[in-house]
Design goal:
The chain is mainly α. Helices cover 75% and strands 0% of the residues. It has one domain: Tetracycline Repressor, domain 2. The protein has nine helices and no strands.
Length: 190
Amino acid sequence: MDARSDNIIQVAIAMAERDGYDAVRMRDLAAQAGASLATVYRRFHRKEDILAAALEQHMTLLSASLQASPIPGASPAERLGNFFTLATRRMAERPRLAAAMLRTVASGVPELAERVTRYHGRMSECILGVTRGAFTEEAPTQSERDVVQLLQGVWLAALVGWTGGLYGHEQVIEQTNTAIRLLLAGQEPT
C-alpha cells in the first residue's frame, strides 16, 4: 500500500475513533487527509472499503505481534481465554472505532467480500496459532477448523451485542470464555 492510501486509512481511523462510523464521510476524509476527493475514490470506492482496509492492517499487526510474542498460557483454553480477553479489552479502549469496524464487517456489501474474507482468514490463523501455542504451516484438522470458526462467531456476535449496548465488554469476555470451555471440553451447552 502506498503512503497516500495509508494516510487516508489513518485519517479514517482517527475520524471513526473520535466520532464513530457515520462521521467517516468521504468529502471530510479527503479534506483531512490533504487529498482530492477523486484521489480518495480512486483508491477506495466507499468508506467501508477504507474501514475494511484499516481492519486488515489491524489484523496484520496482531498476527505479527502474536508471532513475535506468543500469548501466555499452559493450555489451549488458557491461551485462548487470554487472547480473547486481550483482543476484547483493546477494542473496548476504542469503542467507536471498534463499532465502525464491526459495522463494516457486517455490512453485507458484496464488493467487500474479499477484504472481509481476508480478515476472517487472518483472525482464524491467529486463533489457530494461539490454540496450538505456535504458528505453523501445518494444516488445521477439521476439529480445529470447527473450533476456530465457532469461537470467532461467538466472539463477533458478543461484540455486536456490546456495540449495540446490550452489555459491557466484560460480558463479551465471559461469553467467549464459556464458549472456549464448552468447545474444548467437548461438552454440550446446557
